Structure formats: C-alpha cells, structure tokens
Amino acid sequence: MIGPKYCVQESIPLMAQAYGFSYELVQYKWPRWLHQQTEKQRIIWGYKILFLDVLFPLAVDKIIFVDADQIVRADLKELRDLDLEGAPYGYTPFCDSRKEMDGYRFWKSGYWASHLGNRKYHISALYVVDLKKFRKIAAGDRLRGQYQALSQDPNSLSNLDQDLPNNMIHQVAIKSLPQEWLWCETWCDDASKSAAKTIDLCNNPKTKEPKLAAAVRIVPEWAEYDKAVKDLLRKAQEQRAGGAGPRPSPSPRSGGPQRDEL
C-alpha cells in the first residue's frame, strides 16, 4: 500500500499528522546467546513473541498486536479491557466453521491434536498481552528457553510466532478470545462475517489468492482506505519534490537495530 518513495518510518509521521494519532518507535537487539534466525520473515516472527517482556517500557501495562493485513471494525479498547482471567495473554482460536477447509486444519491431527488435547490452536494475527502478569510469571524466559531448545531443529517451529505459544500452552496459559475478534475467510464461514470485529487476510492454502486481491474482494472498505493512504503519500511526495516541506524524520528510542511498532 505504501509506495516505494516512502519507507514505513517516513510515512508514519505523515499519517499521524493527517489522522491525529501519536506513536513511538521501540528498539531491541536480538541477544547474541539466543539462536539467531536468518530469514526476514522468521526474524519478525521472533520479535513478535520472544521479547514481549523487554521490548516495551515498564510503564506499559498492556499491548495489543494487530497484523498489518488486518482490518479493525471495532474499538480495540474493548480488547484492552477484556478480562484475561489470570492468563498473561489472549489469542483468538482458529475458526472451524468453514467445513470445506477441514483437510487443511493441520492442528486437528498428529502432534498438535495430541499436545493440545481439548485445548484449541490459536492464531497469532492478533493478541493482547498483560505485561504485568507476563513479567510476573517470567513468561518471556520460559518462551525463550523453549525456543532455544526447539529452534536448533530446522523442522521445528515452522510457524514460529504461532507454534511457540501454542506449544507452551501448558506452561504459559492462553486466554481464548471470543471468535469475533478475528474473522478469516479461509477458516470461518460467511455467516459469521457480520459479527467480525477484525478481518484478517489469512493465506488460503487451497486457492493461494494474493492478499491484495483478496482484500478488494472480501473487505468493502479496503479500496477506500487504500486510496486515502496512497493519496496522502502522493501529495506528500509532490510537496517534497517541490521543496514545500522537509523529509519526515522520526526520532526512535536509542540502542540496537531499529524496529517499528505502532
């Protein structure tokens, strides 16, 4: 959605000014002692789950992660205020209502079926974390310890950011969020879409439809959002080219390689 002439760190200040939100950038350097990932996607997945206790300032009590390919249709304050019933974090389980996808539900058989028992396999596209509880039970240390043991095997943790918390569900409890907090066409039936509080553009292993094509088809408001952001960045680019304004220059926190978190 963002054109090649603006990187994310340049576009955020423009969007903050246009839409009236505040933001900060946080940074954390991957520890040398922890098994390194080399693929960009897996590095991102690692940051999503391995450093929740140290990535954010101690004054931050809760965080909500939302995937970039997700459309929010509700007030996230509802999710922030949701009672996690003592769990350090809450995830939404995968839907099981689209029956034609039953053959692709890998968590219904084999290792996952045995490991989870009567528990559900949760998706990592959206989650809420109670950082106070998370730190109190040393959940970060537990997750990193399990990651260190499993990641030596290249066949383990194929979906790192999902497999790790689901694998640790007996040691670090997951509160299952109400299903409407994450609707995905791949796994959820059409009848449940009207109640969706967020719509996630999950990959579809059956059709392999590109996500941007799926967005236009599935989400009526997507085209309007996409056009609004493109118009904003195009106008900023024109102003910059004409010397009407300086290049945006956000000032992230110091230390370590830079990572963006909204």
Walkthrough of the structure:
This protein is an alpha+beta fold. It has a domain at 31-208: Spore Coat Polysaccharide Biosynthesis Protein SpsA, Chain A (Alpha-Beta Complex). The protein is built from 10 helices and 6 strands. The chain has helices at residues 8-19, 40-49, 52-55, 77-80, 110-116, 131-136, 139-150, 160-167, 211-218, 222-241; strands at 62-66, 70-72, 89-93, 122-130, 174-176, 198-200. The chain has a 4-stranded mixed beta sheet. A two-stranded antiparallel ribbon has the order 2-6. The longest helix has 20 residues, at 222-241. The protein is globular, with a radius of gyration of 20 Å. The two termini are 17 Å apart. The relative contact order is 0.20.
